[in-house]
Design brief:
about 180 residues, 5-stranded mixed sheet, 4-stranded antiparallel sheet, about 60% strand, globular
C-alpha cells in the first residue's frame, strides 16, 4: 500500500495503492502556484485536494467514498512530494485539535456537538476555503458535511462518532467536540 511520488513541476502521477481508503501526505516547496487534483480511472478530475500558493504541507483522505482515485494531477512551480499512508496515520481527535491546513483526524468518541473555526487564508482574494466532512471510521463511506465555507468562519455542527474528520483547508482550522 505504501507509495511515494515526487517531482518538480507539472506531472500526472499514477497511484499503485488500489481502491482502499488512504491518507496522502502532500508537500510543496515552491514559491508559486500549487494544485493537486484527484483523477478517476479515465483521468477525469474528481475534485481538488489542494489549491494554494507557496510552500505548503497538508494531509488528505482519498478513496473513502465510492469514487476511487487512480492518479493525481500535480501543477507546481517547484519541488513536491506525496506519500501514501494508512488510515492508522490519522491524528487522534481527543476533544479538540487545531491544524495549519488540510488534515485527517480520527474521532473515537460518541455523538457530540462540534465547534468549528476556520481562520482563513490572507493570501487568498476570497479569504480562503474550508470544507470539513466526516467519513466512516474505517474509511468505508461518507457520513456528513460539517462546514463548506470561504473566508474566516466559526459555527457548530452535529458530529456522529466514531468517524474520520477530513478537512480540506488552505489555512488554519480547529475543532472541539462537546459530547452529548
Amino acid at each position: 500500500m505504501s507509495q511515494r511520488i515526487g517531482g518538480d513541476g507539472n506531472q500526472v502521477a499514477r497511484l499503485t495503492t488500489g481502491v482502499e481508503p488512504v491518507i496522502l501526505d502532500i508537500r510543496h516547496q515552491g514559491a508559486g502556484h500549487f494544485v493537486v487534483d484527484a483523477l478517476e480511472g479515465k483521468l477525469r478530475s474528481q475534485g481538488q485536494l489542494v489549491y494554494t500558493d507557496g510552500p505548503f504541507s497538508c494531509r488528505s483522505l482519498i478513496n473513502a467514498d465510492d469514487r476511487p482515485v487512480k492518479a493525481l494531477r500535480v501543477q507546481a512551480d517547484g519541488p513536491w512530494t506525496i506519500e501514501v499512508t494508512a488510515l492508522s496515520s490519522a491524528l487522534p481527535l481527543d476533544g479538540q485539535a487545531r491544524r495549519p491546513a488540510s488534515d485527517v483526524l480520527c474521532y473515537e468518541g460518541g455523538p457530540g456537538i462540534a465547534t468549528l473555526t476556520y481562520e482563513g487564508d490572507p493570501r487568498s482574494g476570497d479569504g480562503g476555503y474550508c470544507l470539513i466532512e466526516t467519513f466512516e471510521a474505517d474509511g468505508g463511506g461518507f457520513l456528513d458535511e460539517l462546514a463548506n465555507r470561504t473566508g474566516p468562519w466559526q459555527g457548530e455542527a452535529p458530529l456522529s462518532g466514531p468517524c474520520l474528520v477530513h478537512a480540506r483547508s488552505d489555512g488554519p482550522w480547529s475543532i472541539s467536540v462537546q459530547p452529548v
